[in-house]
Specification:
The chain is an alpha/beta fold. The chain has helices spanning about 20-30, 45-55, 70-85, 110-140, 160-180, 200-210, 215-230, 235-245, 255-270, 275-285; strands at about 10-15, 35-40, 60-65, 90-95, 140-145, 185-195, 195, 235, 250-255. The chain has one domain (about 10-285): 3-Layer(aba) Sandwich (Rossmann fold). The protein is built from 10 helices and 9 strands. Helix 1 links the parallel strand 1 and strand 2 (about 35-40). The longest helix has 29 residues, at about 110-140.
């Protein structure tokens, strides 16, 4: 049955589609009848996603392109290319992201901090600005920006990541206010996933090594612990939650019981949130 904001027949752009939530968003969008434009900086992962999509839904229209979302001019060119291919764009899922350095604000490597902000914040801003005019032109647009549980709950040794995800939340809520004020035919949604089973932590370690950043034992321990203890929700279930929320017209989507619990905690005890975050940190990662 067609829901009020069904994705069926829509052209949907997914950034970071080469793995994790992005890959599962692509698969679920295809199953629900959307046409796709998929991009990722990882060409091999992107090709694998496209293959899975075509195997699951052979008739789906899929456009793929390698893209680094931190490159503004490349994102603008990509948006034009997608419109040339599909003729229209209805939805953009600004999903691409990296995990950050896993160090304190004082000890963080500037190369990692700058890359985290470039992908997680500027990548979202680039995608939003490049596609927004096309979404307006479609007459039925939707911007979906992926933040995080750490977009409303800060934790130690995640300053660069939390800064980027808090900023995505602010950017998206500001955009929604503008769209409402200008009566534009575009819906705006911010997504806050909790611990979803992806390779974001280990991928961050791999990228840091490629950049020549020397990693500490504590960084490696935190990355392993995140993937073993905190990233539990299957990515396909997370994608279904996101798309259910999009089709329901929600402006804010919490993904996972942990995201919902922490959201309530922050609302009830905002001044105590840092103390609670430290207690969680000690329990999960160990003293020191």
């Amino acid at each position: 049955m067609r829901t009020r904001n069904s994705v069926r027949g829509k052209v949907a752009v997914v950034t970071g589609a080469g793995s994790g939530i992005g890959r599962q968003l692509a698969l679920e969008l295809a199953r629900r009848g959307a046409r796709l434009a998929l991009c990722d900086v990882d060409q091999a992962g992107l090709a694998a996603t496209a293959g899975l999509v075509r195997a699951a839904v052979p008739a789906v229209g899929v456009h793929t392109a390698r893209l680094d979302v931190s490159d503004r001019l490349a994102v603008e060119a990509y948006a034009a290319d997608v419109v040339a291919h599909h003729g229209v764009v209805h939805q953009v899922y600004n999903n691409a992201g990296v995990s950050g350095g896993g160090q304190s604000v004082l000890d963080s490597d500037w190369r990692v901090v700058e890359r985290t902000l470039a992908v997680n914040l500027y990548g979202v801003l680039h995608g939003t600005r490049a596609f927004l005019p096309h979404l307006v032109a479609s007459g039925d647009g939707h911007v979906v920006n992926v933040s995080s549980l750490n977009g409303f709950f800060a934790q130690a040794k995640s300053g660069d990541y939390c800064a980027s995800k808090f900023a995505v939340r602010g950017l998206t809520e500001s955009l929604r206010a503008e769209v409402l004020a200008d009566r534009l035919p575009v819906r705006v949604t911010v997504v806050h996933p909790g611990g979803v089973r992806t390779r974001i932590a280990s991928a961050g370690i791999e990228e840091a090594r490629r950049s020549g950043v020397e990693l500490t034992p504590d960084q490696l321990h935190r990355a392993r612990t995140y993937e073993e203890k905190l990233l539990r929700m299957p990515a396909d279930r997370a994608a279904r939650t996101v798309l259910d929320g999009v089709e329901a017209g929600r402006s804010r989507i919490l993904v996972g019981g942990d995201a919902k619990a922490v959201d309530l905690l922050v609302r009830l005890f905002p001044a105590s949130a840092p103390v609670i975050a430290n207690a969680i940190d000690r329990r999960v990662f160990g003293a020191g």
